[in-house]
Design brief:
Radius of gyration: 18 Å
Oligomer: single chain
Number of helices: 8
CATH topology of the largest domain: Rossmann fold
CATH class of the largest domain: Alpha Beta
Strand content: 5-15%
Distance between the termini: 36 Å
Order of helices and strands: EHEHEHEHEHEHHHE
CATH superfamily of the largest domain: NAD(P)-binding Rossmann-like Domain
Largest sheet: 7 strands, parallel
Strand order of the largest sheet: 3-2-1-4-5-6-7
Length: 277
């Protein structure tokens, strides 16, 4: 316990899924949490996003384990809104030491040549520009504090191995590798480390949707989770359909902690061996 004691962690996409899991895991280990989420819908995203109630539940769960948390509704595509959310958190808890740039969206399963402009732009704007905005919002506090820090970007196994029908998502995750490596070089003089964590499938509301099920079972009118488990399992070398949010949160915690104090510019697969296939 206490592996990130006394540190302040900014987490985007914190209302549910991986973001909520990261907030809870870091809080368990002593971090104060600045939880940011859009808590609303984006028209081009083909599934239901988290809402205010989800963000409130993340807050409640962190507080129930004794953690301190401040939440803010902000769109990572909006630099001014994100800056304001970060400033509120810094005023309450002090300078940021950990950033988990986790906010991201998926896309409908469709070939790139058939993809329309709006979902392409939305995917790139949230998944890439949103990460850039997040680091821009947090870095001044980290640099000014002079205590170093850790930035962890939620990427994907698709940043290492491409897949068909999700080309905008794949492109966005590949872009994050270049963004991360450049940030790692630019922030290294300030002892701020930057890395990506790259999961295979994770059973969150972003994944367990009809759009994903239909990618595996287009032959069924209404495929359910039991119909696609074998399909998900086929993506991984280990005989599991996916990794759990706790698996990713443990990797995030390690990268955030002083145990990884010399790790920067790394792409860390937590992927059940999916990139080996």
């Amino acid at each position: 316990m206490g592996r990130v004691q006394g540190k302040v962690a900014l987490i985007t996409g914190a209302a549910r899924g991986q973001g909520r899991a990261h907030a809870l895991r870091l809080a368990e280990e002593g971090a104060d949490i600045i939880a940011v989420d859009l808590a609303g819908q984006i028209g081009a995203v083909p599934y239901e996003l988290a809402g205010p109630a989800d963000l409130a539940l993340t807050t409640k769960l962190v507080e129930e384990i004794g953690g301190r948390i401040v939440r803010a509704e902000a769109d990572v595509r909006d630099q001014a809104a994100l800056d304001a959310a970060v400033q509120t958190g810094v005023e309450q808890f002090g300078p940021i030491g950990i950033v988990v740039a986790n906010a991201g969206v998926g896309q409908a399963g469709i070939r790139l040549r058939h993809l329309s402009e709006e979902p392409w732009r939305t995917t790139i704007d949230v998944n890439v520009t949103g990460v850039w905005h997040t680091v821009k919002a947090a870095a001044p506090s980290m640099i000014e504090a002079g205590a170093g820090g850790s930035i962890i970007i939620t990427s994907s196994s698709t940043a290492i191995k491409a897949r068909t029908n999700v080309g905008a998502y794949v492109a966005s995750k590949h872009a994050l590798t270049g963004l991360m490596r450049t940030m790692a070089l630019e922030l290294a003089p300030h002892r701020i480390r930057v890395n990506t964590v790259n999961p295979t499938s994770v059973p969150t509301p972003m994944l367990l949707t009809d759009r994903m099920f239909r990618l595996f079972r287009p032959d069924l009118d209404q495929p359910q989770i039991d119909d696609v488990v074998d399909g998900f399992r086929s993506l991984n070398a280990l005989p599991v359909p996916w990794v759990e949010t706790s698996d990713i949160s443990n990797a995030v915690l390690w990268l955030a902690s002083d145990e990884a104090r010399c790790v920067t510019g790394a792409v860390l697969p937590v992927d059940a061996g999916s990139v080996l296939l």
